[in-house]
Write a structure and sequence with these properties.
This protein has one helix at 18-28; strands spanning 35-41, 49-56, 64-70, 76-78, 89-93, 96-104, 109-112, 116-118, 126-132, 142-149, 156-161, 166-169, 173-177, 180-187, 193-200, 210-214, 217-222, 225-233, 235-238, 241-242, 250-254, 262-263, 274-275, 283-287, 299-304, 310-317, 322-331, 334-343, 349-355, 362-367, 371-374, 385-390, 398-400, 403-404, 409-410, 421-423. It is rod-shaped. The strands form ten sheets. Strands 3, 4, 6, 7 and 8 form a five-stranded antiparallel sheet that branches. By secondary structure, the chain is an all-beta fold. A hairpin with a 6-residue loop joins strand 29 (349-355) and strand 30 (362-367). It folds into four domains: 9-118, Sandwich (Immunoglobulin-like), CATH 2.60.40.10; 126-200, Immunoglobulin-like (Sandwich); 207-317; 322-423, Immunoglobulin-like (Sandwich), CATH 2.60.40.
């Protein structure tokens, strides 16, 4: 192909402008129509994009070389010293806009490709963890579980610094670790490594600081039903404050107190205790073995920590008595009785009020439910009564009321005020 350069008539004869015109002409499209195109490939890992250049229109004997620079700043990227390379492929590029420059070193002819932009879809790894601290002094019971977001799966995990180190593994869990500071290195499929700092500490339970807040109890599982009984507490206290470390202490019971016979889960001798998981009625309950017969001996609470250390609290608490709560009130010039069983009382319960002034006046009542309200009981204000009773096993009842003194007496109430019944046989 022959190119013809037409020179305007007003420039003819003005030779000094001819070199400039020739330069402008050939620079626009290479000296002889040379072109360079650049194709970009986006990356999924950091600095993993690439650009491939294709040159055309150069002489047959062309000795081609290439270099890459940033579009905006003009800074050379590959090679970074501004020299040329034989390969037309540029790898390992971060996201950005680039220009490829091509040079025929034989004929000293060059051309540039239009700018090309490449992107990177990679998001940096975000690391988090959960841990289990050491619960026994000197033990290696700690655990670290690492969670990774973003990056490029699959991941490998290694403990690179700490009291112990672990080589790279695909499992994100490290177990059997002692107390100390750890650096965990996580590497993704792109070869990117990120460190994670984790501290495992001593998390011991000091049994010497734990006491029973209320209890222990040895009573019916179901109020009024003596077919099954259980050990229980109401709550534990830590350093004198109600509440203890949930899920860290097992509770069992020594029965009889001082015997060395310790009953754990299911009421089984020498079985592990049940975990204390918060206070409340019948907390840390364990069945009382029916083979032990009557519940007449005292009971102790036994606490066990994570390490198997035990502490027997010498509570020496007697089983709950068979007792009946009686609350009298004055209503319509008569006495209303509210009575309720508690503890180890068995239904049906029988209660008798005998008038001390006239022993022939006897007022018997039967409780076939756990509580009963008896209006117009027949008891007379100002009279004293001897109160006796037995439960369903014909065992004597104890009584509790809303006033305590040395005689059994329903006092004379003023109008529309409570009456009081006084008992001396209170546990």
């Amino acid at each position: 192909m022959i190119r013809i350069l037409l020179i305007p008539s007003y420039l003819r004869g003005k030779r000094k402008f001819l070199p400039l015109l020739l330069l402008m002409f050939f620079a626009a499209k290479g000296a002889f129509g040379q072109t360079v195109t650049a194709t970009g490939t986006n990356g999924s890992c950091p600095s993993s994009a690439s650009i491939t250049a294709t040159a055309s229109g150069f002489a047959a004997n062309a000795n081609m070389s290439y270099r890459l620079k940033e579009s905006a700043s003009g800074t050379f990227v590959q090679p970074n010293d501004g020299s040329y390379q034989v390969s037309s492929v540029f790898n390992g590029l971060p996201a950005g806009s680039y220009i490829v420059e091509a040079l025929d070193q034989t004929n000293n002819v060059s051309a540039n490709a239009p700018p090309v932009t490449v992107s990177i879809s990679y998001l940096p790894m975000d690391l988090s963890y959960t841990k289990t601290d050491i619960t026994c002094l000197g033990a290696s019971t700690g655990q670290i579980v690492v969670t990774v977001a973003n990056g490029s799966p699959v991941y490998s995990y290694a403990i690179t610094s700490g009291p112990v180190t672990r080589p790279a593994q695909n499992n994100a869990t490290f177990s059997n670790l002692p107390i100390g500071s750890y650096i965990i290195s996580v590497t993704d499929a792109c070869g990117v490594t990120k460190p994670l700092n984790v501290e495992l500490v001593n998390n011991l339970v000091n049994l010497n600081n734990v006491e029973v807040f209320i209890g222990p109890y040895l009573a019916n599982v179901v109020l009024g039903d003596c077919s099954s009984k259980q050990f229980s507490i109401y709550d534990l206290a830590t350093n004198g404050v109600q509440g203890a470390i949930y899920g860290r202490i097992r509770v069992s019971y020594e029965y009889p107190a001082g015997s060395g016979n310790i009953y754990g889960a299911g009421g089984v001798l020498n079985a592990p205790g049940v975990y204390y998981n918060g206070g409340g009625p019948a907390s840390a309950a364990i069945p009382f073995p029916s083979s032990l017969g009557n519940t007449t001996s005292p009971v102790n609470v036994v606490l066990t920590d994570d390490c198997g250390n035990q502490r027997i609290l010498n509570n020496n608490r007697l089983p709950e008595p068979r007792y009946l709560a009686i609350e009298p009130s004055f209503c319509n010039n008569g006495i209303t009785l509210t009575m309720a069983i508690n503890g180890n009382t068995c239904l049906n319960a029988s209660v008798t009020f005998t008038d001390n002034a006239d022993p022939t006046k006897i007022f018997p009542f039967t409780l076939s439910t756990t509580s009963v309200i008896i209006a117009n009981s027949g008891l007379e204000p100002g009279h004293t009564y001897t109160v006796t009773g037995v439960d369903g096993t014909n065992s004597a009842l104890f009584f509790i009321g809303n006033k305590v003194s040395s005689v059994n007496q329903v006092s004379t109430p003023a109008a529309n005020t409570p009456a009081y019944i006084n008992f001396y046989n209170i546990r």
